[in-house]
Every structure is written in C-alpha cells, then in structure tokens.
C-alpha cells in the first residue's frame, strides 16, 4: 500500500495517524505540493483533482480524498462503529470537517506557513478567521455534552477533526477560549500509537 503524502499536510496526516494507530505497514511517497508535484500528468492519472493524499492499494486501485481514505481504512477496526446510526454520525462530522472547518482553518494555516509574508492571499485571512471560529464553537458545543464526536468512543471522526484542530494555532486560531476542544485535543494525543504530524 502506498500513500502519496506531504509531511506538512493535515489531510495526509489523517491517514498517517490512522495507519499508525492500526499498526499498518505502508510506503510513503512525499510529494512537493509547493512545486506542483501533484499537477503532473503522471499524478493527475492517479487523482484527476491533483491533490494528496492518495492511497494506492497493492492491486493498483486508487482512492483520493482524505476522509474517504480514512473511512475506507477504518472499516472493520475499532475506529469505525458497525452501528448504522453511529456510522451516519461519523460521516456527519467528517463532512462538517470538509465543508465548515478545513476550508477556513487549514487554508489559513496554508497561507501563513507555506506562502511568503507578502503574499496577496493574506487578504483572505480576515474572511476565514470568523468562519474557522464558528467551526471551533460548534465543536466546543458538541464536546460540552459528549467526549468524542461519533458515539461514545474515539473514532475516525475524531481523527479527521483532530488533524487541523491541533495545529489551528499555526493558522492564527487561539484555542484558549475552547476548553472542551483543548481537552479533547489532549485526549486524542494520548491515544496509544499516536504519532505527531511531523513524524
Ligand atoms: N478535500 C481534499 C483536499 C486535499 C488537499 O487540499 N490537498 C492539498 C494538501 S493539504 C494538496 O494536495 N495541494 C496541492 C495542490 O492543490 O496542488 C482531501 O481532504 O483530501
């Protein structure tokens, strides 16, 4: 199994973290996303959307989109319930992550950590900031009543949300007002087998 990866990508980290928790063997192929490595004809043959992460199975099948890969890998493991309702909740939070969280928190982090300080894209930050805080407030509200995002156990939904939440400060998001989120981040980081994003 090959993971087309980038060491700084939170989307790729979701997959790396799950594979580490599962103790699975795989090959990492580092893609230089800043140099356009995911936009070559060869890579577009693997993912026409030109982005990592992409998982390539031993038989050559290819799967893109971090949360689709994580959901696929979590099936049949302790990180995804067999209960249809909890699986629905798992997807609820994974779609929330992609629509209401990642486009604001991860994109702010990308602008601040990948682009030069004089990048015109810094003008996007004032629009992204309140939307990212809205997502953190939604998470805080959920965590005030429940320990994990889907059901009563740590799951792939937590992994999907943890990836960019635990580095939200790199995107300019101060987690101080979100005590429940900070406690949940700490509990995610304490899971046996946890690896850091820069491992
Ligand atoms: N929705 C996708 C987003 C993937 C994505 O944005 N990947 C970025 C790195 S985090 C990338 O490959 N960027 C390179 C490019 O757009 O050329 C997912 O969750 O996998």
Short structural description:
This protein has 199 residues and is α+β, with helices and mostly antiparallel strands. 49% of the residues lie in helices and 7% in strands. The chain has 7 helices and 4 strands, in the order βαβαββααααα.
Please provide the ordered H/E string of secondary-structure elements.
EHEHEEHHHHH
| Main β-sheet, spatial strand arrangement | 2-1-3-4
Helix content: 40-55%
The proportion of strand residues reads: 5-15%
Q: Which structural class should the secondary elements be placed in?
A: alpha+beta
Question: Shape from CA axes?
Answer: globular
Output the radius of gyration: 17 Å
Unreliably modeled segments: none
Bound molecules: glutathione
Largest sheet properties: 4 strands, mixed
Mean pLDDT: 98
Q: Please report the distance between the alpha carbons of the first and last residues.
A: 19 Å
* Number of E strands: 4
Number of helical segments with 4 or more residues = 7
